[in-house]
Design goal:
The chain has 272 residues and is an alpha+beta fold. It has 2 domains: 207 residues, BirA Bifunctional Protein, domain 2, CATH 3.30.930; 43 residues, SH3 type barrels (Roll), CATH 2.30.30. 25% of the residues lie in helices and 29% in strands. The strands form 2 sheets. The chain has a 7-stranded mixed β-sheet, with helices on both faces. The chain has a 5-stranded antiparallel β-sheet with strand order 11-10-9-8-12, with no helix packed on it. A hairpin with a 2-residue loop joins strand 8 and strand 9. The longest helix is centred in the last third of the chain and has 22 residues. The protein is globular and about 60 Å long. 42% of the residues are buried.
């Protein structure tokens, strides 16, 4: 008899609710063997009235996606695909740091698992593999608003956990925790540890603002490098020096001018 692919890391509610250490996040929990996108399911559950902290996890996705309409490789039985529903009582303009705060919590989780993560603004997490840093996780944050107020925020995370093969277009830039560590990892433990790491960061954000969480992000950040930012048909080149309190990237160009980048695609320059 072939082994159950979930036997070593059972993501079902029966098991997960016993393992959780959070007060709120994940206490409403749903697991699907397959779906198109966990972010789409979370958005539908939000519209139906799901409470803050609801988590949806799928064993596979047929239409998982990342930023800028990219697809997310989502085979069954290997990785972690989840979406977290939040309902912050904040103006929409203050929500942008949530992507970085989720990245900070994920970096803390993977550090405890034994890897050295690097956060790549705004939403990628890289780990060392094959002598370089390669992408192991991405974060996609989507928001629904009513006027200036937030109705809900969905934080979607795809984490390559135990996958060992990738499609040709990803093979040279993607990796997994298993490839980085040389051993299989427990998906359920990673999920439990991420939620436990994110809950206090999120709670502090609601009460005091994002400063503490952004400082955690900086500890793992890929800053100080020569980079190129493409946004709205324009290009900024310079040194990625820091982020501000809104989560925007600060880039100093060769003339010493500082550019504040609220959104865009960052890539490293050759030799940077």
């Amino acid at each position: 008899m072939s082994p159950n692919p979930l036997a070593e890391s059972d993501l079902t509610p029966r098991v997960m609710l016993r393992r959780l250490r959070t007060r709120c996040l994940g206490r409403a929990y749903e697991f699907l063997p397959a779906c198109a996108s966990t972010n789409d399911v979370a958005r539908a559950r939000a519209a139906a009235g799901a409470a803050e902290g609801f988590v949806i996890v799928a064993d596979s996705q047929s239409a998982g996606r990342g930023r800028l309409g990219r697809s997310w490789h989502s085979p069954p039985g290997q990785n972690l695909y989840l979406s977290l529903l939040l309902r912050p009582a904040l103006p929409a303009r203050q929500v942008a740091p949530l992507t970085l705060l989720a990245g900070a919590a994920l970096a803390r989780t993977l550090t405890a698992a034994g890897v050295t993560p690097r956060l790549h603004w705004p939403n990628d997490l890289l780990v060392p593999a094959a002598g370089e840093f390669r992408k192991a996780a991405g974060i996609l944050t989507e928001m629904a608003t009513s006027g200036e107020e937030v109705r809900h925020v969905v934080v979607g995370i795809g984490l390559n956990v135990n996958g060992q093969e990738f499609p040709p277009d990803l093979a040279q830039r993607a990796t997994s925790l298993r490839l980085a560590l040389g051993r299989a990892c427990d998906r359920a433990k990673l999920l439990v540890d991420f939620l436990a790491a994110f809950e206090p960061i999120y709670g502090d954000f609601l009460v005091r603002g994002p400063a503490a969480g952004l400082q955690e992000w900086r500890r793992h950040a890929d800053l100080g490098r020569v980079c190129r930012i493409d946004r709205d048909g324009a290009r900024v080149e310079g040194i990625a020096t820091d982020i501000d309190d809104s989560g925007a990237l600060l880039v100093r160009d060769d003339a010493g001018r500082m550019h504040r980048i609220a959104s865009g695609e960052m890539s490293e320059q050759a030799g940077g």
